[in-house]
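Quick question about two entries, pasted in order.
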Amino acid sequence: MRIFVRISILLAAANTAVVAQCSDAGVCTIGSKHTSLSHQVGVSYVFGASGKTDDLTFHSVVMEGTVQLFEDARVVVSLPWTRVSGPLGNTSGIGDVTVLLNQRLWQDHASLLSVQIGGKLATGEDNAGSLPQSYQAGLGTNDLLLGVAYEFDGWTAAVGYQLSRARSENALTRLKRGDDLLLRLSYGGMLGDVNASAQMLAIKRLQESSVLNSAIPGGDAFVTVPESDQFQVNLLGQASLPLFENSSLQVLAAVPLLNRDVNVDGLKRTLTLSAGLWFTL
C-alpha cells in the first residue's frame, strides 16, 4: 500500500497553534512525514475556539511553502494571519514565522528515519489592542525546534522539543512560557483516492509559565502561573482529496482528549477545523 501522510504546519490556528490545545505551530510540526514531493505552496483557513472559560475564537489564514533542497532534505516555511475575538476585544495581524528543515538520515523499503531542526521567529504582534498575551497573533519569543521521527509501514512515531527561554514584550503579562516536549503517534494510508490519517499528540510543558506580578504595578516582579505546566493529549483526523492536476484539498479536525485549564498563552483549543488548497510545482 502506498503511504502518504502529510502533517502540515499550515494547519495552524491563532497564536500559531496547530491543533486543539497544541502548544504552537513549532512543536506540533515536529514528526511530520518525510515526503518525496517536490516544491509545494498552500493556503489554509483555520477556525479555533478556546472554550467557555476564556470564550476566545480564532480565525487564521496561513500561507506555506515547501522547498525540496535535495533528495533527502526539505524546508517548510509558514506564516499565519490571525484574528482573535473575545470578551475583552478583538485583535488581528501577522503571526510568527515557522521554519523547519526535515532531513532524512536512513531509509529502506519499509521504514525511514528523519530529523528536524528549525525555529519559530517572533514576527507577530504581541501588544495589539493593549490586550493580554492570549489575544495576540504572536507569542513574542524566538524558539528552537528539534525532533526525530521514525516511519514504518504507514505508522509514524516522533519525539520533539521546543526550547522557549525568552519573555514576551506584552505589556500586561510579559509571559515567559516553559519548554515543550511532544510525542506523536500517527497512522495513515490511501482510502481509494483519499489520503487519510489519524494522530494522537501528547504534549508536556516542562516548566510553569511566569507573568508580571499584578500586585506590584509598574515593576518587573514576576510570579509563576499555577498548573501552567499541564499535560495535554490531542486527537486529530486529516484527509487529502485530489482536485485537479497537481492540486489537492486538505481538511482537518482536532479535539483535546485531555483538556488543560490554564490559557495564559492563548494556545488552548477545544475545537480546531481547517481546510486548505495545496499545489505541487
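Here is the second entry:
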Amino acid sequence: MSDSSPPLNVLFLCTHNSARSILAEALLNDMGQGRFLAYSAGSSPRENQQPNPLGLQVLQNAGISTAGLRSKSWDEFAVPGAPPMDLIITVCDNAAGEVCPFWPGHPATAHWGYADPSEGDGTDAQKLEAFRLTLHALKRRLELLVNLPQDKLGAAVLQASARQLAQAH
C-alpha cells in the first residue's frame, strides 16, 4: 500500500468482546504500521463487559498498548457514521455461526477460530499462559496479513486472501 492509500479497516468479532477479539485489535493496530486500522466488537457482550484483565496483562507484557481498548457491541459498527469495514474476521466459533448485521459496503469476511483462553478452571498462571499462547497464534496469522502484497489486499481478492490465512498456523 502506498503512503497515500487509506488504511484497511478490520473488525474482529467474538461473542463477548473480552479476550480474542481484543487481543487481535491491539495486535493489528500495533503491527499494522498505518496500513491497517483494527477494531473489535462482540455479538452479545455482557452488561458492563470489560476486556479480560489477563488479556490486558499479556498485551502489556508484550509491549503492546492497551489504551482505548473496551468491550463493545457490533451494533456500533453497523450504524451510519461508523467507520466502513474492509474486512471482518470472526475469531470465535460462536460468533462465526451467528447472523451478522448488515455491513455497509459488503466487506470481505473470514473466520479464524481460536480456543477461548478465558475458559477452564486452571490456575491464574495457567490462564495467563493460555492468553499468551492465543496472542502468539494471532500474531503469527496477523504477520501474514500485514505482509500480504498490495494486490492481495484489493477489494476483489481480500476475502480469498483472508480466508486462505485461516489455514495458516
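Reply: Strands lie at 8-14, 36-42, 87-90, 108-111. The longest strand covers residues 8-14. Hope that helps.
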